[in-house]
């Protein structure tokens, strides 16, 4: 069965964006190691799940990157991988999705997600899309969280996890420290023991 793997940047104090949605602090620490991580992440998958905000951001830029004369060959190669993925966009407000290989679903239906995981192919990934990650976390449908902890304290902002209904116990399966000081922590849900309390 395919796994759903999410990657998310976070400040040391647990925020994914500043109080006004600022994300400039992420780019400040982007180095070669981060580029290699992102390329390997997108190469491991053939399907991308997106919420509306992330979809509109990605669809507005990545389709044009391979033809841009101002970006590096590495970024073009990454963009081609991203553009080729199957994309499932969750939105109640979008009328249509134009990015190639995209389909629109109005709501997160656990049966649809389980069916997607049963299909043959590579892993299913999520970039950002915090609300979608929170929804899938509450449904117990995420198989791995890759958290990119940035060495910055924002003091306030948009939290990584909010409105989580039940405690989720995780186990650390990998940790990598990049030269920039960003630490990539990979967690998988811990299987609950069968004992009763």
Automatic annotation (TrEMBL):
Alphabetical list of Pfam families matching this protein: RibD_C
Gene3D superfamilies: Dihydrofolate Reductase, subunit A
InterPro entries recorded: DHFR-like_dom_sf (IPR024072), RibDG_C (IPR002734), Riboflavin_Biosynth_HTPR (IPR050765)
GO biological process, one term: riboflavin biosynthetic process
A Gene Ontology molecular function term of the record: 5-amino-6-(5-phosphoribosylamino)uracil reductase activity
Domain of life: Bacteria
Domain Bacterial bifunctional deaminase-reductase C-terminal intervals: 2-183
PANTHER family according to UniProt: 2,5-DIAMINO-6-RIBOSYLAMINO-4(3H)-PYRIMIDINONE 5'-PHOSPHATE REDUCTASE, DIHYDROFOLATE REDUCTASE FAMILY PROTEIN (AFU_ORTHOLOGUE AFUA_8G06820)
Protein name, entry field: Bacterial bifunctional deaminase-reductase C-terminal domain-containing protein
